[in-house]
Request: fold
Amino acid sequence: MTTGSLLVADLVIAVLATAGWLGGGAASAARRRPLALGLTAVALLATLARAITITALARAGWWFAAEKILIAGPLSLAAVGVAGPRLLRAPGDIRAVALPLLFAGYATSSALLVTILHGYPASAGAGLLAVAGVVAATAISARALGARPSRTVSRVALVVAVAALLTGTGLTVAPGAAPAVPHGHGPPAARIADEPTRRFTLTAGTATVDAGGRNVAAWAFNGQVPGPELTATVGDVLEVTLRNRDIERGVTVHWHGYDVPNDQDGVPGVTQAAVRPGQEFVYRFRADQVGTYWYHTHSASDVGVRMGLYGVLVVRPGPATGLDVTVPVHTLAGRQLPAPRVERVEPGVPVRLRLINTDSTTHRYAVAGTPFRVAAIDGVDLRGPTPLVDTAVLIPAGGRYDMVFDAPATPVALFVDGRAVYSTGPVPTATGAWPVLDPLDYGATAPVPWSRTDKTFTLVLDRGLDLRRLLPRYAHTVNGAADPDIPQQVVRLGDVVRFTIVNRSQVVHPWHLHGHHVLVLTRDGKPAAGSPLWLDSFDVRPGEVWEVAFRADNPGMWANHCHNLAHADAGMTLHLMYS
Ligand code: C2O
Ligand code: CU
Reply:
């Protein structure tokens, strides 16, 4: 069983246990004896079964089980310890066990709430809040049931509840490490002085564009979605003038995966101010990385990219040879882009398909009709890629794969989620059942280029209630905090930095660090065995643990976030800073 499915199973069992205890309590209060005993039996079994799921989760990693062991464990023991013996004494009047059963229900439900609303790390504050909730709810039920506990008992309960509540609130809401995300600062312009060799202008504005044969309202660069394809040859100096005609939310250009100097990175509030309507900003950087990249606005990035403010950036080593096709996949107003394209290709022509996922969720790509190789991932060439046949790839949000092959005499087609997007003729192939390539096992291995690690950080991805703002929100969190309260990661120039990224939530998080490519070391403890994988976007699926590393060689303040941009906006963004 994968850790992801264990997380789901544990949650389902916890809900069953809670429902069983609460239902049993209610049924016995209503003197419905058989129902009460039935529900209680379910609750007891489920509560005991959690011992199994929690142990298995703890073995997958402490991050997955911390609050379950520290908070749910004791509360479940209390539930069984209080309710169990009373049941065994099998009272003539079943109503007599209503209160212990309800107590058990409150204990398991508050533990469940800790997991759902607070998650990792387990804190004393969360534990105390949970206890306070159980005491308060039990006291209220006692009154309702007319079971008058002695004055002393209720006083003690009251004091315990209030004390726990106060300490809990204090511990939970008190500011942790100082957030201190700078706003609108940046090192003095380090923009290169060399004369530009490639000049582009991108004008952002609202537009009506054609998406799959239907006119839709969009936000576009130069009136088109995607924006113009920017191409360069390695060594070129690019100068891109960004103008904003009428995008009220402001625009910037972020060069996704391109490790530009920090002040060219296009992150509003961090490396520059957002460009407001009527304003402009000039980007200039040297194209010294070859490969497939893309650009997109980073201002209100979730809505901005979704509405169409993105385009392709391709840097070639020299003049293009053969057929070179970019396929930037995007969902615009529910329509799939790009529109399908069919062209004839002479047999023997070398073909490169540059697949780009500009959406916030994973897409499945399949090349049918020919053996092919994955030549590069995230712009970086792979070492010793071997030919693949009838194999699909999953590209994470923001990710790129370059597929290469020599055109055969028979037609070839590229399918995205089962839809033919590019073809050289009709290919009636169902690719849905094809196996999926694991890039960690693909290509020829090479030793890790460093023998030391100077800094390590763990990022535990989860959901949680964020109370530190005017309006509470159910945030996407890193180590229990949401942007802007996630402590910065501070590194020094030259450090070898290691990230352990743990997903204990129920959804995929495509991770993306700006300004650096990271080398994949392990996934779920298994070392990467294929070509060195230098990624800028990778899917951390529920229950997965990734270890990646990079050399801190690009000073500045860098966004480090989930590239499901709705998650990034809902808290899952932090910053890497050079001291
Ligand atoms: Cu492509 Cu900060 O993102
Ligand atoms: Cu995410």
